[in-house]
Write a structure and sequence with these properties.
Blueprint lengths: L1 E8 L4 H11 L4 E9 L2 E8 L2 H10 L5 E4 L1 E6 L4 H11 L4 E10 L2 E8 L2 H7 L2
Antiparallel strand pairs: 1-3, 1-4, 2-3, 5-7, 6-7
Length: about 120
């Protein structure tokens, strides 16, 4: 699974600009996270079609960074995120973002954007 990280200016219309570029390419967004600090913003998107999303953003002259994600399926209960975070920390993995990518009964699936995806995948096994 891969994500696209897009740096934006914190102003009205920026989310719409990205969403419209993806929509024009017929790209569905599986998960999204965003945050603004001061006049800057960062949007992180997991598209259903990474190749199509890459093409759509490039065609709209939108710069992005592409990253592989480490995924894990956890019990949906208190302390599970803490355990996963501790495993990543113990492996020396720095966390950039976390997404909820699925909920099914008592399970939750998370995707982590990290500085070393191989180490993260091994730590989360």
């Amino acid at each position: 699974m891969r994500e696209l990280a897009i740096q934006l200016t914190h102003k009205p219309g920026e989310l719409g600009r990205i969403a419209n570029a993806l929509a024009r390419g017929g790209i569905n967004i599986k998960s999204v996270a965003g945050m603004a600090i001061g006049n800057q913003a960062l949007l992180r998107v997991i598209p259903d079609d990474i190749d199509g999303a890459r093409s759509s953003l490039t065609a709209s002259n939108i710069r992005f960074e592409e990253n592989e994600l480490a995924t894990v399926l956890l019990e949906n209960q208190a302390g599970e995120l803490a355990l996963a975070a501790d495993k990543l920390a113990s492996a020396g993995v720095n966390l950039h973002a976390v997404y909820v990518i699925g909920l099914d009964g008592d399970l939750v699936e998370l995707a982590f954007a990290v500085d070393d995806v191989k180490k993260a995948k091994k730590a989360l096994e």
